[in-house]
Amino acid sequence: MLRYTIRRLLTMIPTLIAISVIVFVIIQLPPGDYLESHIATMQAQGENVDQKKIAFLREQYGLDQPMWKQYLTWAAGFVQGDLGYSFEYDLPVTEVVGDRMFLTILISVVTIVFTWLIAFPIGIYSATHQYSWGDYGLTFIGFIGLATPNFLLALVMLYLANVYFGTSIGGLMDSQFIDQPWSTAKLLSVLEHLWIPVVVIGTSGTAAMIRRLRANLLDELEKQYVTTGRAKGLPPGKLLRKYPLRMALNFFVADIGNLLPGIISGAEVVAVVLSLPTTGPLLIASLQSQDMYLAGSFLMFLAILTVIGMLISDLLLAMLDPRIRLQGAPAK
Amino acid sequence: MSEPLLSVRDLRLVFRMATGEIEALHGVDFDIDPGSTVALVGESGSGKSVTAQAIMGILPGNARITSGQLIFNDPASGARTDIASLPAESPELQAIRGARISIIFQEPMVSLSPLHTVGDQVSEALFLHHAVSRAQGMEQTEAMLEMVGFPNPARALRTYPFELSGGLRQRAMIAMALVCRPSLLIADEPTTALDVTVQAQILNLIRDLQAELKMALLLITHDLGVVANMAQTVVVMYHGRIVERGAAAELFSEPGHPYLRALFKAVPRFGMERSERLVPVRAIEHELGEHFQTPASATAHGEALLDVRHLCKSFTIRGTGLFGRNESTEVKAVDDVSFAIQRGECLGLVGESGCGKTTVSKILMRALSPDSGSVEYHDQGEALDLLSLDDEAMMAMRCKMQLIFQDPFSSLSPRMTVFDIVREPLVIHQRGDTASQRELVQELMRLVGLDPRFLSRYPHSFSGGQRQRISIARALALQPQLLICDEPVSALDVSIQAQVLNLLKDLKSELGLTYLFISHNLAVIDYIADRVAVMHRGRLVEIASRDQLFSRAAHPYTRSLLQAVPHPDLARPLDFAAITASGGSDPDQWPAAFQLDAGSSAEWLDLGQGHRVRARANANPGEIVQ
């Protein structure tokens, strides 16, 4: 197991390097750079731009250097924790991102837990009571959840929260706590606001997961080994937990890797609608203005999260399923 | 012995379907006495397995017992329970299930959970039904595993089912069923999925354990050979009814019901006369159309059609998983295999599963390329090297060689109509226009005894035997010369098997076809083949005409195969001692003359009349012919 973990960790390195190259190239793909689009904006507003200053800035930020050199500078800085400099905000990226990264991760994790807590019991109920009224009802609600666009749900929830719970519209905390140091009151405020984005972001994922869990469990329930268990005299609840559920867990775990990036990218549009202080709106803005270091850092964070999610699910799978642990794939 | 252990009385059972309720059992009656063996015989769909499930209380959700009784008299407690009156999940029934009555299934792989160790699964029933400590329980489990013949029971506790061979898995399954020492064991086709030598071992094991644990056995099977060797009482089921019931000796000597009589005539036996035909339970008629006429040269024997020389193919099996050693082992799936098929003959290829039979057929079809060796096809005096043909020549070659697969369910696309399936080869090879293709397809249907009106249906509406005939029609569409039949009847019921075998036999003589017939069933090979090649772990060990092989088999492996076949004849019981004595499939147990040193390729020893056996080069013939 240890060897496998180490090997798995080592293979992450080339993966991340490849991703970083791709991220960098994609950011650089549109013609020009931040300064050029900045100049264009300024000129459009009728302001004069000092060409000397531009040239100075360009040299300062290394924008006049070839792309591979720029990449190396960025990558080297990234490894040392220096995420570069945001042109737009005139601040180091670390400072711009700051709390937002933490809040993004918080929302994502809570959403995943929410998804599982809701999807798991409903999925099991639906599968074990196939074609019952309960199954049909839950399936119906699930499809509504699946079909409703996130941003629409966000608007509806905002309205409802404001009218019935008196929670102020948008944001992740009451306005007096913004930019304040963390305190118990601030944390409570965050928790009070948190459920809206979590429900909004989590709904479609939950609905999808219920469907998949139901389908997987139904397949497993048909299998011969379940009959064997029944023939041993196992009571139904114990039988369900020990055999088919254990088997259906596999896909659940395998899903972790997909869940993280899905939730984070799905959350971005919602974050704009709800004006959440997460990374989503920032990323979109930075991509629009070609704020390359800021955008690059974001995308790298997403990639790292995905790779880590995959690692976790692979390790869990290997722990859960002896076939993965013990059976080698036969070569052709 | 006043009371039977289990008496089934007027058991009726319905299945709830979309179209309404369908009665599957129409009043089933039989008794099982303590310690006795009852065989429940019938074809698939006759209600055998449903009866077993009803006894266990493990019916599928859409089945319901409508009337009748299942009285179980437990000899240990003296309690009398009517299983049919109890709900499936009632505590009383759960206490009986797995503890007093247990069951083993046909497919040991899918019947065991791949995620739990053998020890965990075997001991589970013990912990569930008996108040034993963990240590005691594991000890008893280990003892049980030893009893069913695990070579290293302590290690077996920790292994997973997928790490075991089919035979060992079925042993684990038996251990699981017996760990609580039940008074009734239900064995639902316990050996159908196993090789013939393994089958003999498992049957022997069940018999020994039955005597030791003094339990009754309800054996569900369609194999009359197994019945003859195991059962005292036989109950014959047909379409959800018991049609005949009695002592095995009576039923075997004087089968009363027409179905049982028909069944006896449908089973291939050793030593049948060449002219004797199997009589299928439901015979089919087929007719030759104008496109399919007996060619004049059909009977021209003696000329080799296919010449296979020194075929070798190895597979590399990499690593033992993600954790640990990354050694790769090379397995020789096909090791220096040479044979020739004469025009118009049927060569049978026999061997246990995994011996490389199918790999050979895949190489012949060029689905796999061999590491070395050659395959020559002789067509009108012209020798074609099959392995070096380019794509265009191979395309033309495909019209001359066709394949029939084992599984009639997965080998036909469920999304195509029968017409499209049978026509597809004609479309691929651009034979004729749509009208002429339709005409030919209709003729093909009549050729395999199917009604051309079925052409617009989809495969799911056909039975296994009918599907297999559709496969044959598809294979014949291009009017090939050579058919490779890879276990074409092993997925079929005995009654259907005779139908398909007769059809293949007739088509061979009528159309002058040549067959390579792969099977693990020696009785089937005996019925259809002219010559037989025996394969063992990638090598041919013996090749002879059918008569010679079945009367004077020389190789110990061939002998053990022959001895392990259960005969549907009470006078010829399996001789378990002889099977073990002849060494079976383990080369280390063979007599010295047949043991081959690693690396040395053995000599073919000619015993005359084309009977050849693989043995040591310096072995003297006296050692070999015993």
Residues in β-strands, percent of chain B: 15-25%
Topology pattern of chain A, helix = H, strand = E = HHHHEEHHHHHHHHHHH
Protein chain pair with the most extensive contact, residues per chain: A-B, 33 and 41 residues
The strand count of chain B comes to 22
Beta fraction of chain A: under 5%
Please outline the major beta sheet of chain B: 8 strands, mixed
What helical percentage do the residues of chain A reach? over 70%
Task: List low-pLDDT spans of chain A.
Answer: 328-332
How many extended strands of chain A? 2
Q: How far apart, in Å, are the first and last alpha carbons of chain A?
A: 26 Å
Q: Measured on Cα atoms, how large is the radius of gyration of chain B? A: 26 Å
Please, could you describe this protein's structure?
The complex is a heterodimer of chains A (332) and B (626). By secondary structure, chain A is mostly helical. Chain A has helices at 2-28, 34-44, 51-60, 67-79, 93-128, 133-147, 150-165, 184-221, 224-231, 236-242, 244-254, 256-273, 279-288, 292-320, 322-326; strands at 85-86, 91-92. In chain A, a hairpin with a 4-residue loop joins β1 (85-86) and β2 (91-92). In chain A, α5 crosses α12. The radius of gyration of chain A is 24 Å and the shape is globular. By secondary structure, chain B is of the alpha/beta class. Chain B has an 8-stranded mixed sheet with strand order 16-17-18-13-19-20-22-21, with helices on both faces. Chain B has a 6-stranded mixed sheet with strand order 6-7-8-3-9-10, sandwiched between helices. A 4-stranded antiparallel sheet of chain B has the order 2-1-4-5, with helices on one face. In chain B, a hairpin with a 2-residue loop joins β19 (531-536) and β20 (539-545). Chain B starts with 5 loop residues before the first strand and ends with a helix. Classes of the chains: A mainly alpha (332), B alpha/beta (626). The A-B interface holds A 1, 3-4, 223-225, 227-236, 242-243, 246-247, 318, 320-331 and B 56, 58, 89, 94-99, 102-103, 105, 107, 110-117, 124-125, 128-129, 160, 162-163, 173, 176, 315-324, 328.
